[in-house]
Specification:
The chain is α+β, with helices and mostly antiparallel strands. It is 49% helix and 17% strand.
Length: 781
C-alpha cells in the first residue's frame, strides 16, 4: 500500500463507494419487503380483491365478511374496513382528518396494532367508542394519559352522538400498508348506509385470517378462492349484482404487488425493487472490476516476489490465499469508509426516497448481511488477481522476463468494456426515464391543470344550503375567477359502477366511473364538449340527465354524434345522455382512460377555483374569507390540482431521482478504474514517450496515441450497451399506456458523453506524460 499509494487509494475509494451504494439500496429493499411482516402469522392473513371485467378493485361487497366466516371452514376471523374523511371536533377545536377507518371489533385481533390504553377485546365494541393513535391523543389532549374517556364529535357522521375514546394505540408502524389516526366501530357506518343489496356495491376492504392449524399453501389458497366465488354466485342468484371474479391476496404482497383501483395510498412497486437490486449488483460488480483491473495491472511489480516465494518453498495455493487475504483486508478497510459514507448520506437518501431508514449496526442480522456482501465483494474482486499472480513461472520472473508486464491485458480490456457497458446502460436508462417523466408531466390530459386551487368542503349542516351560500359569497368577492363544486378531484374519480342502456346485448355490461358536478365544471377545468350540451341553470331535470366521456360512448358501441338522447341506467337511475365530453385523464397515464358518467348535483366534497396567474395568494385569502362566512371555525385547507397530479407519479419520480444518483456513481467508479489504468499504462511507457519526443513527436500526437486505446474500448462498450439499454427501457415503457418513443439522439448523446468522460479521465495522465521533459523520462529507466 505504501509503494502504490495512488492505486491503493483508487481501489479503496472505488470499493467503498460501491459498498456504500449497495448497502443503501439493500436497506431500501429490506424496508420495502418488511411491510406488514410485524403482524404475527402474517402469512395467514389475506385480503379479498375483485376483477370486474378488465378492472381490478381492492374493494369488495361488505356481505363477504359475515358469509365467509359462517360458511367456509378454516377461517379464524374476518374484518371489514371502510375509509372516511371527516371534520373532528374536540372541545372548541376542529381537525380535518383524512386518515380514518370504520372497522369491526375483529380488526385489532387480526392485525397487531398494540394498545397503550384500553382493552383490545372490547375497545371497538361500544357503538359510541373511538380508538386513536398516540400521536392523535397528544394532538387532541396533550398526552396519552389524558385521552381515555374524553369526548370527540365527528361532524355529520353520527348525528347527535358524542364518541368517547376507548383506546389509544401505539403509532402505526411506517411499514404498515394501512396508515390511520382514528378507528370507529363499523356499526356506525352500517346505520347510515342502507344496504338493500349487500352483494352489489364494492365499497369495503375485507381481510380474512386463516385458522392456526391451516397451512397457507397454494392449494389451500386456490380452494379458498373457489369456495368464495361459489358462495357469491349462490348469493347473487336473481339479484342485479355485478359479474366479478374474487381473488385472495396475501397481506405481505399488498405493498409491492397491488395494481388495483380504490386501493389505500402509498403502495410500492415490485418492478422498481427488482430494478434497484439489479443496479446494486451492477455497481458492486463495477467496483470489483476496478479492483481486478488495477491488481492485474500491478502484477508485474510483484512478479519477483512471487518467484522468490516459490523458490523458498511456497505452494501456489498458499500464494493464492495470501493475495485473497490481501483483497479481503482491503475490502474490510473499504467497508469502514463505506459505513461512514452511508451514515453521512442517509438523511439525503431518506429525503429522496421518502423513507425513515436508519443504519443499526447493533442489529446482528443486518451486520451479518453487510459482512456477507463485503466478503463476497472481496472474494470476487481478489479471486482472479490471486490465481493470475500465483501462476507466474519462477524461471521467467527471476530472469526478469518483461513479457509479464503486459500480462492480463486482454482480460483488463475486456473488464473495461464490460464496466463501461454497464455504465452506458444506466446512462441511457436515466435519460429515457427523465424524458418519460417529463412527457407525463407535460402531456395534454384533456383539461388545463395549471392554477387550479381546491378546498375540501366540510360535511356539516345542510350540504345543499351551505354549497349555495358559499357560491353566493364567492360570486360577490372580487378577484375570484371561475369556480365549481364537485364530488371528486380529477386525480381520483368515483367508484366503479355498472352502466346499462336500452337495447344492449346480453353480456355487454360496461363498468364505469362516476362523479357529481355542478354546471360550472366544464368551464372551470377548460374541458371540451364534443357534442350536445353541458348542465345549465336554463334547463331543468338535471337529476335525470347524464354527461358521458368518449370512452363510455365507445364501450357502448355508439357514436358521439348520435349518442345524445340515448337512455342509460347508472346506480339504478335511468336518464338520457345530454352531452359527450372529450376524454380527459382522471387516473395515472400508465392506465387507459376508462368510461366515465357525470351527473349534476348541487353540493360536493371539493370547491375548485381557477386563479389568475400570479394572484394565487390573493385568491386563497379571498376564498378563505368566503369559507369562514359559511363554515365558521371549521378547518380551512387547500391544495393544487397540478401538484396532486404530480403526486400520482411520485414512485416514478423517486425512482428517476435515485436512478440518476446511482448512474452518476457508477460512471465515477468506472472512471476511477480507467484513471488508474491510464496512470499505469503511462508509467509503463515512460521511456517510449521520451524516445518519441526526442525523435520529434508533438504533444497532441502523444496524447492521442495514449488515449486512443482506451477510447477504442469505450467505443466497443457502446456497441454492446446500446441494444441492451434499448431492450430494457422498451420493456419498462410498456408499463405506460401513453409513452415516448426512444429516439436515436438518446444513444448519440450517451455515446458522446461516455467518450468525452473517458477522454477527460485519461487526459490528465496522457497530457502530463506528453509535456514531461524527455531527459527525465529517459533517465527514469
Amino acid at each position: 500500500m505504501r509503494s502504490h499509494k495512488l492505486f491503493m487509494g483508487l481501489n479503496i475509494f472505488g470499493l467503498a463507494s460501491g459498498l456504500a451504494c449497495t448497502i443503501l439500496i439493500f436497506l431500501w429493499v429490506q424496508d420495502e419487503f418488511s411491510f406488514d411482516r410485524f403482524n404475527p402469522g402474517a402469512d395467514r392473513i389475506f385480503r379479498l380483491t375483485a376483477k370486474i371485467k378488465d378492472i381490478g378493485s381492492a374493494m369488495v361487497p361488505p356481505a363477504f365478511a359475515a358469509a365467509i366466516k359462517t360458511e367456509i371452514p378454516g377461517i379464524k376471523n374476518t374484518t371489514r374496513i371502510t375509509p372516511l374523511q371527516k371534520i373532528v371536533t374536540v372541545g372548541t377545536r376542529k381537525f380535518d382528518e383524512k386518515r380514518m377507518y370504520y372497522v369491526d371489533n375483529y380488526f385489532l385481533q387480526v392485525f397487531n396494532y398494540p394498545l397503550l390504553r384500553g382493552n383490545k377485546a372490547d375497545a371497538l365494541l361500544a357503538p359510541n367508542g373511538v380508538v386513536i393513535t398516540k400521536a392523535t391523543a397528544i394532538r387532541y389532549f396533550g398526552s396519552v394519559g389524558q385521552a381515555m374517556g374524553q369526548s370527540i364529535y365527528i361532524d355529520n357522521d353520527i348525528k347527535g352522538a358524542t364518541l368517547q375514546v376507548t383506546g389509544v394505540l401505539k403509532d402505526v408502524p411506517a411499514n404498515s400498508h394501512l396508515q390511520f389516526d382514528l378507528l370507529l366501530p363499523i356499526e356506525n357506518s352500517d346505520r347510515q348506509v342502507i344496504q338493500p343489496q349487500p352483494w352489489r356495491y364494492f365499497d369495503c376492504y375485507i381481510y380474512i385470517q386463516l385458522a392456526d392449524q391451516v397451512k397457507p399453501n397454494a392449494g389451500v389458497v386456490r380452494d379458498l378462492e373457489e369456495r368464495i366465488n361459489a358462495m357469491r354466485n349462490r348469493a347473487i342468484v336473481n339479484t342485479p349484482a355485478v359479474p366479478a371474479s374474487i381473488s385472495v391476496q396475501p397481506l405481505t404482497d399488498i405493498h409491492l404487488h397491488s395494481h388495483f383501483g380504490h386501493d389505500v395510498d402509498g403502495q410500492g412497486n415490485i418492478q422498481y425493487v427488482r430494478i434497484f437490486m439489479l443496479v446494486a449488483g451492477f455497481i458492486i460488480f463495477i467496483a470489483c472490476i476496478n479492483f481486478m483491473n488495477l491488481a492485474t495491472a500491478l502484477s508485474s511489480s510483484r512478479a519477483k516476489e512471487v518467484g522468490l516465494r516459490k523458490t523458498v518453498g511456497a505452494l501456489r495455493w498458499q500464494l493464492t490465499l495470501q493475495f485473497i487475504g490481501e483483497s479481503l483486508l482491503l475490502a474490510f478497510i473499504s467497508l469502514g469508509f463505506a459505513l461512514l459514507l452511508v451514515s453521512a448520506s442517509l438523511p439525503f437518501f431518506n429525503t429522496l426516497s421518502s423513507k425513515s431508514i436508519h443504519l443499526d449496526l447493533a442489529d446482528i442480522k443486518l451486520g451479518i448481511k453487510i459482512l456477507t456482501i463485503t466478503i463476497f465483494a472481496g472474494l470476487l474482486a481478489g479471486s482472479y488477481p490471486a490465481f493470475y499472480i500465483s501462476s507466474f513461472n519462477v524461471t521467467k520472473v527471476l530472469k526478469g522476463d518483461h513479457s509479464l508486464k503486459s500480462g492480463g491485458t486482454s482480460l483488463r480490456n475486456g473488464l473495461v468494456v464490460l464496466q463501461f457497458s454497464i455504465s452506458v446502460v444506466l446512462m441511457v436508462s436515466t435519460v429515457v426515464i427523465y424524458n418519460q417523466l417529463r412527457f407525463i408531466h407535460n402531456r395534454d390530459i384533456g383539461f388545463d391543470k395549471e392554477n387550479l386551487l381546491y378546498i375540501p368542503m366540510p360535511e356539516v349542516g345542510d350540504l345543499t344550503d351551505n354549497a349555495g351560500a358559499l357560491k353566493s359569497a364567492l360570486s360577490q368577492s372580487p378577484g375570484i375567477g371561475d369556480y365549481t363544486i364537485t364530488s371528486d378531484l380529477p386525480t381520483d374519480v368515483g367508484t366503479n359502477t355498472p352502466l346499462t342502456w336500452r337495447g344492449m346485448e346480453n353480456g355487454s355490461l360496461v363498468i364505469c366511473h362516476w362523479m357529481n358536478v355542478d354546471e360550472n365544471y366544464l368551464k372551470t377545468f377548460g374541458m371540451t364538449l364534443l357534442t350536445g350540451r353541458f348542465y345549465s341553470g336554463d334547463f331543468k331535470g338535471g337529476d335525470s340527465a347524464y354527461i358521458v366521456n368518449e370512452s363510455a360512448v365507445k364501450a357502448m358501441r355508439m357514436d358521439p354524434a348520435t349518442a345524445v338522447g340515448k337512455m342509460i341506467t347508472v346506480r339504478g337511475r335511468e336518464g338520457a345522455i345530454i352531452g359527450v365530453v372529450k376524454d380527459f385523464n382522471f387516473r395515472p397515464v400508465y392506465a387507459p382512460i376508462e368510461p366515465l358518467v357525470i351527473r349534476q348535483r348541487a353540493f360536493g366534497d371539493f370547491l375548485i377555483v381557477r386563479t389568475a396567474a400570479g394572484s394565487m395568494q390573493k385568491t386563497i385569502a379571498a376564498v378563505r374569507n368566503c369559507f369562514r362566512r359559511v363554515y365558521g371555525s371549521n378547518p380551512f385547507s387547500y391544495g393544487f390540482v397540478d401538484q396532486d397530479l404530480d403526486h400520482l407519479y411520485l414512485a416514478e419520480t423517486r425512482m428517476g431521482s435515485l436512478f440518476n444518483g446511482f448512474s452518476v456513481l457508477s460512471i465515477i467508479i468506472s472512471c476511477l478504474g480507467l484513471f488508474g489504468l491510464a496512470a499505469f499504462a503511462t508509467q509503463r511507457r515512460t521511456k517510449e514517450i521520451g524516445i518519441r519526443k526526442v525523435l520529434g513527436a508533438d504533444k497532441a500526437g502523444i496524447v492521442l496515441l495514449l488515449a486512443k486505446e482506451f477510447l477504442k474500448l469505450v467505443a466497443i462498450s457502446l456497441l454492446i450497451a446500446f441494444p441492451v439499454a434499448w431492450y430494457a427501457m422498451n420493456r419498462w415503457l410498456q408499463g405506460f399506456v401513453y409513452r415516448i418513443n426512444i429516439s436515436g439522439w438518446v444513444f448519440a448523446a450517451a455515446g458522446t458523453a461516455a467518450l468525452l468522460i473517458a477522454f477527460l479521465t485519461v487526459s490528465y495522465q496522457t497530457i502530463s506524460a506528453a509535456i514531461a521533459n524527455p531527459v527525465h523520462s529517459l533517465k527514469s529507466e
